[in-house]
Design a protein that fits this description.
Length: 201
């Protein structure tokens, strides 16, 4: 069973639909026992960093997420779910993230001709081998929707990058924690393969 954490964020149902399409049972939940007994856990989401952290706290999900990670259950953060894994975000000054991974989330600089938010298809480069990208060719395209991006403290955890005025750290892996800034559930066959690779862990 794959637990998808429900904390009233946007875009959760499309992740559930993609996982179901791959033949896995899912449960959309904020119940501690369901999350802790799941085979794998996904934290998706679209929205504001501070608002999301407030909801995770209100629903009592912060200690549950940390327990899932500590017990070694494969955990996948998607879009906002990646950002929340880190320590802080310029989007919500003074709000602490989950702090499971070290680094901060910063605003994409407003360069001439580049629209913010960054919405659309961008190709990936792979600075080092990542489990999520097995069988996926460099320069494969995935779908992004974001205004803020990751600056990870530990560069060795960065497994995929893209360019949008600056180098965007698009995916990280550390231990049992995996995360993508882009939306695999909206990234056609490439995205489904990424999700399949996560489900195979």
């Amino acid at each position: 069973m794959i637990a998808i954490i429900d904390y009233d964020a946007g875009n959760i149902k499309s992740v559930q639909k993609a996982i179901n399409l791959l033949g896995e049972e899912t449960v959309l939940t904020r119940e501690k026992e369901e999350i802790l007994t799941a085979d794998k856990v996904i934290l998706p989401g679209v929205g504001a960093f501070g608002d999301a952290m407030e909801k995770l706290e209100r629903f009592g999900l912060i200690p549950v997420i940390k327990e899932v990670v500590e017990k070694g259950t494969p955990f996948l953060g998607i879009c906002l779910g990646l950002q929340l894994l880190f320590e802080e975000s310029e989007e919500s000054p003074g709000v602490k993230g989950l702090g499971i991974l070290k680094g901060k989330i910063v605003k994409i600089p407003e360069e001439t001709g580049l629209k913010i938010p960054h919405i659309g298809w961008n190709s990936l480069d792979f600075p080092s081998e990542g489990t999520l990208f097995r069988g996926i060719q460099p320069n494969s395209y995935v779908y992004f929707v974001h205004s803020f991006y990751l600056q990870a403290e530990e560069k060795e955890i960065v497994k995929a990058t893209t360019k949008y005025g600056v180098t965007i750290e698009a995916s990280v892996e550390k231990g049992n924690v995996y995360a993508c800034q882009f939306h695999p559930e909206k990234s056609s066959d490439v995205g489904l393969q990424i999700l399949k690779n996560f489900l195979a862990i």
